[in-house]
């Protein structure tokens, strides 16, 4: 029997909501360091690992969500054509990637040095498109994902004299960007997310027992944030910077 309505798994939204709070906190500290010149070490130590943990949750959940979305589409309509399915992910990926391009333009105008060439939205957008052929591989995604992580870690030990493959993970010498998430290793984390999505939510159903805490007020707040993660991601940085300006804590030379 096919499900006729869209069911959301509250725990996915909840985890994404936690990642949103972590992201906003880190970017607040980063902006205090970058724009207000507070002595906060955001590039190493605890806060660096905090930022990496935040990104890891986000990107892992991208893979989980893609697998759940694919299962849902198949569950609702088993006769959906492959071309139509691919177009769905192509449109979704291009939408997210387009927002990444807008961030590239905005950061180039306002920052110049360190502007975003291939940030997390670029990664997520391309990953949504690239992930489609992997959705049916199921358990192979774990091995391929781990290989991508290994290859990305290996490439990190080298620098190159060209820029055109920086999006893939070939980091140029003297390269600096305030937001850099190349496909290697990060696409590997998406594939691992797809693996766990297939393992834990096969056929658009939860394979494990979990009490429903979604009616609790605090949980609802986190789930709400998780459902609107893209919107929050897009507005939180301009909002934080505007508040720093308003309170006289930051000065930015635009030109």
TrEMBL record:
The keyword Iron does not apply. Pfam families: HGSNAT_cat. Keywords: Membrane, Transmembrane, Transmembrane helix. The chain crosses the membrane at residues 12-29, 49-71, 92-111, 117-135, 142-163, 183-201, 230-250. InterPro entries: HGSNAT_cat (IPR012429). Residues 8-238 form the Heparan-alpha-glucosaminide N-acetyltransferase catalytic domain. This is Heparan-alpha-glucosaminide N-acetyltransferase catalytic domain-containing protein.
């Amino acid at each position: 029997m096919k499900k006729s309505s869209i069911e959301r798994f509250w725990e996915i939204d909840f985890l994404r909501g936690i990642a949103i709070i972590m992201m906003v906190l880190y970017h607040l500290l980063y902006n205090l360091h970058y724009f207000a010149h507070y002595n906060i070490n955001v590039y190493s130590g605890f806060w660096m690992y905090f930022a990496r943990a935040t990104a890891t949750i986000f990107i892992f959940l991208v893979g989980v969500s893609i697998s759940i979305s694919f299962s849902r589409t198949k569950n609702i309509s088993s006769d959906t054509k492959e071309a139509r399915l691919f177009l769905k992910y192509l449109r979704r990926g291009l939408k997210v990637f387009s927002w990444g391009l807008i961030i590239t333009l905005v950061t180039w105008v306002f920052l110049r040095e360190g502007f975003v060439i291939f940030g997390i939205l670029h990664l997520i957008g391309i990953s949504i498109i690239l992930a489609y052929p992997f959705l049916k591989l199921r358990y192979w995604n774990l091995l391929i994902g781990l290989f991508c992580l290994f290859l990305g870690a290996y490439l990190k030990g080298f620098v190159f004299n060209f820029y055109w493959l920086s999006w893939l993970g070939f980091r140029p010498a003297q390269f600096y960007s305030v937001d850099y998430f190349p496909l290697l290793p990060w696409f590997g984390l998406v594939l691992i997310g797809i693996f766990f999505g297939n393992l834990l939510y096969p056929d658009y159903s939860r394979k494990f027992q979990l009490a429903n805490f979604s009616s609790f007020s605090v949980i609802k707040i986190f789930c709400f944030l998780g459902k609107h993660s893209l919107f929050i991601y897009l507005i939180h940085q301009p909002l934080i910077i505007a508040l720093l300006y308003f309170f006289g804590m930051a000065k930015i030379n635009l030109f």
